[in-house]
Structure formats: C-alpha cells, structure tokens
Design goal:
This protein is 61% helix and 7% strand. The protein is of the alpha+beta class. Helix 3 packs parallel to helix 5 (106-115). The mean pLDDT is 81.
Length: 250
C-alpha cells in the first residue's frame, strides 16, 4: 500500500508490482501493461507455470492452488495464479484497493477487484531461477499456518454471510441430528439414559441460531465497509479533478 500510494502521488497511470527476490522475468512487464494501455483491463496478473517450477515444494504448489481456488470462489473471477506478485494495476483500480491483511496482499486485492467489477486478466509469464530463500516463508509449517489463517480471514471479510451461515448450518444440523436421535430413544422408552444427548442437542441448536444472527450482522458490516470504500474512492477522484495542475507538477 505504501508503494501504491507513492505511485499515485507521483501521478502514475499504470503501476507494475513485482517481488524483491527477482522471481519474475522483468522483460515480461510489457505483457502486463499492454492490456491496461489498450483499456481492456484494470488489473493484470502474471500467471506462473507453477507445476514446472522446480524450487517450489509440493506443499507450496498445493497451497498456491488452494489460494487460487479460494479467490475464484470469493471474487467470482477466473485467475489461475492468484498468489502471483507480478501484476499491473491501472490508476483507477489502485485508488480503490485497500489491503487489510498484514501477511500478503495478493489474494485480497483480486477479491476486491472482483467485487468492484473491475476487468481482470491473467497473462502467462516467465520466472527466473531461485536466487535466495523466500523471506515470506520462514518454514513450511509457518507458511501453512499463516496461509490458512489468511484464507479464513478473506472469507470472513469478503464473504461473511456465506462463512457464518455455513458454520451455523453445520452446528444447527448436528444439533438437529442429535435431537432426533434422542427423540427416538425417548419414544422407545429409554430416553432417561440419554439426557446428555438432549443437552448437547440444545447447546448446538442454540449455537447454530446465534451463528446465523452473526451472519446477518457481519453482512451488514460488509455493506457498510463497501460504502466507506466508495466514499474514499469518490473523494480521491474529486481531489484529483480539483487540483489537476498539482498532479502535473508532481
């Protein structure tokens, strides 16, 4: 976000983002910027040949695919390599992106772009040989843990109703099944020995109902967040249009 804000202040019309480990082939930059210059895309993602990259472990390849699948579900886009850090962003798109996650921005920005109906393209790009260990991945276990947390947070932030409704349905369903089981024992005359099932059923049903209520509240908060993002974007546009000579000076 610091880099994007600095580029916007300098008046950039197209912003190219790459990783500091020189993973991506820099001569492919024109492939990313051209769709934006042609007004065909707002965000262009460089798709790496994941399956053929030798220095990527099996676990990392699996997490790359999992992350991409989560993004496709949450953003309703079709990006094969969502965790890719090699991307080009138009000025208009950059103004609308806000990153909440403190571990990685890659998944979140695509989801935001998809929810804002931006035009997103995926372009095959090349990668360089592994030059040094990733500073984002101190260990495989830590990478898995933080990646899973990131994916869960993305669902909570951008698909809150679906996330909490799914959890609520699971809890309510388990409670209902256990309750029906107790009812069967009760009707057969042996319900006294299964009171624990009744207590567990009541607890799960209550938890499921409360989770459904949280789903509605979370959905209202998500709608409020979208309104705030729209206000931020319109304010930035008004400021830019009001002082065009300031941008030229920059």
């Amino acid at each position: 976000m610091t880099g994007i804000n600095a580029c916007l202040l300098l008046g950039a019309d197209v912003i190219v983002n790459t990783d500091a480990d020189n993973q991506y082939e820099a001569t492919d930059i024109p492939l990313l910027t051209q769709p934006i210059l042609d007004k065909k895309a707002d965000l262009v993602i460089g798709a790496r040949p994941i399956t053929t990259i030798a220095h990527f472990s099996i676990v990392k390849k699996m997490l790359q695919k999992l992350g991409s699948w989560v993004v496709r579900v949450a953003s309703k886009t079709d990006i094969p390599d969502a965790p890719s850090g090699f991307r080009a962003i138009s000025r208009s798109a950059a103004r609308q992106l806000i990153v909440f996650n403190d571990y990685t921005y890659t998944l979140e920005t695509i989801i935001q772009a998809g929810q804002k109906n931006m035009a997103i393209l995926s372009i095959p790009i090349r990668v360089n040989e592994d030059l040094r260990p990733s500073r984002l991945m101190s260990s495989t276990s830590n990478y898995i843990k933080r990646s899973v947390i990131t994916i869960v947070r993305i669902f909570i932030i951008y698909r809150p109703f679906r996330f909490f409704a799914s959890v609520g349905t699971l809890l309510f369903g388990l409670g209902l099944v256990i309750g029906i089981r107790f009812l069967g024992y009760y009707l057969s005359g042996s319900g006294a020995g299964h009171v624990q099932s009744l207590i567990l059923s009541a607890t799960l049903l209550g938890m499921g109902f409360q989770t459904f209520l949280i789903a509605f509240i979370a959905d209202l908060l998500a709608a409020n967040r979208k309104l705030l993002e729209d206000i931020r974007f319109k304010t930035a546009n008004l400021t830019s249009n009001k002082f065009p000579q300031w941008r030229e000076k920059q």
